[in-house]
Specification:
Blueprint (H helix, E strand, L loop, with lengths): L3 H25 L1 H5 L42 E6 L5 H10 L8 E5 L3 E3 L2 E5 L6 H4 L6 H8 L4 H5 L4 H9 L2 H12 L5 E6 L3 E2 L1 H8 L9 E3 L1 E4 L2 E4 L5 E4 H9 L4 H4 L1 H6 L3 H13 L4 E2 L25 E2 L4 H21 L7 H9 L7 E2 L1 E2 L5 E4 L8 H5 L9 H4 L5 H10 L7 E5 L2 E5 L6 E2 L10 E4 L1 H10 L14
The structure holds 2-acetamido-2-deoxy-beta-D-glucopyranose (2 copies).
Amino acid sequence: MFTRKSITIALCAAFSLLLLLATSRRLGGWTAIDDPLYQSGGHGHHPPPPPGHNGPGPRPHPSENPDCAGYPIPDNILVIMKTGASESFNRVPTQLMTVLKCVPDFLIFSDMEQKIGGYPVYDSLSNVSAEAMEGNSDFDLYRRQKACPVDVEGCNKQGNPATEGWNLDKYKNVHMAEQTYKMRPGYDWYVFVDADTYVLWPNLVHWLGKLNPNKKHYLGSVTLIQGFRFGHGGSGYIVSKASMKALVDENPGVGQKYDLRAKRECCGDYVFALALKDNADVSVEQMWPTINGEKPATLPFGPWHWCHPIVTMHHMNSEEINTFWEFERRFRREQIASGKPRPLLIKDIYHEYLEPKLKREQLDWDNKSDDRFYVDISAKQWDEGTLHRMKPANEYNELEKVAHRSASDCEAACKSLPPDDCVQYKYEDGKCAMHRSFILGKPVPKKEGAKQSISGWDVEKIKEWTEREKVCDKIQWPNLSS
Ligand SMILES: *[C@@H]1O[C@H](CO)[C@@H](O)[C@H](O)[C@H]1NC(C)=O
Ligand SMILES: CC(=O)N[C@H]1CO[C@H](CO)[C@@H](O)[C@@H]1O
């Protein structure tokens, strides 16, 4: 028999549990609701979660995941990630363990249907026309993967997956857009990225919340092919609801329409832009440097890359993605604790990545200096690229005249110039290179004697400039007619 007392205790316990659950849900959603910087877009019609799923795979919803504490959780943005079966197991698991963990809904497309850790990976090429595939060697990899009796990496030893993967890739983008809109028609924003793209989710959500998805938008980092402007795929491009509708809804079978065109062209991101232009009359809008193709080690810091929020980076391997994710979450926690959260700016990446490592000279290091070169023209045959980026000799100061002699001459010449001309240098094999922005760079193979690469930063100039530009009075979002 239950006593009156035990019933009361049980009721109290049940009530506390309910209260606890309600509070924890609310805590998870806190920033999306209360943080003025991070209000989600909320443009009316929201898609229901896919039936039988709590998001796209076997995981807690971001609102219930402590790893995503302080992250905005909007329900109007979909991330679409493109990969290929020859690389998917090297890239996707890390994305799932980090960035995608806090993205409420996403789709992963590849060139083969798979499951990775229980998450579906769709075949973007399943609807390519037979006409385009037949007798087309671009699809050799596709066919080999399908017929592979063991793991894809094992089968790819018989081919050249890097080149073959590239040739196959260009057929994907328009089909992905078509399939995506059919699977998930209700979103305001469709964010197309590669599996080595890092998405800065809190920044992205904040930014898109300010824009109008009912306008035809196609936001990217502009690249040119034969004078035609398109959004670089690895940097990621963002397509509004209105553009997706005009492209897919109003053009049944749009994917197949571009299969033969893709065969003639180099790249899928370019073909996608052609399709958007032809069918929806939408052209890319330049969002660089906020949509960015560099990464922390290659970002050129300086006046053009400083108070700018950044929403994507590219060419990030698994370790780089994981390391940045830790930084991004720490930054976000600190911002929330400060009571006045602001977006992560490019300067914050400088302070985290480059500032602690700045030094006068770094051996066997490549700092990407290539704005201006100093060489002894008579010493040997220099390539056009080098000769093209030299000052006329009559503009040299005394130190510039001898900059090509050694790493320390190169350094001294750099120091003698204003920051607009040089804040870092690199010396290698009789060539002094100077640069106007500061970059972390990377190690290069060790070489002996003259061929050794030596890079250096003009630490004083950089410190003086960064100290002066310590506070960003104005956050420089891209200009957008919205
Ligand atoms: C596949 O292509 C056909 C022909 O263009 C089209 O009618 C159909 O809607 C496409 N299917 C999907 C799932 O996109
Ligand atoms: C990291 C990197 O790519 N560094 C550059 C440094 O400068 C040389 C020019 O001498 C470039 O060729 C490198 O690419």
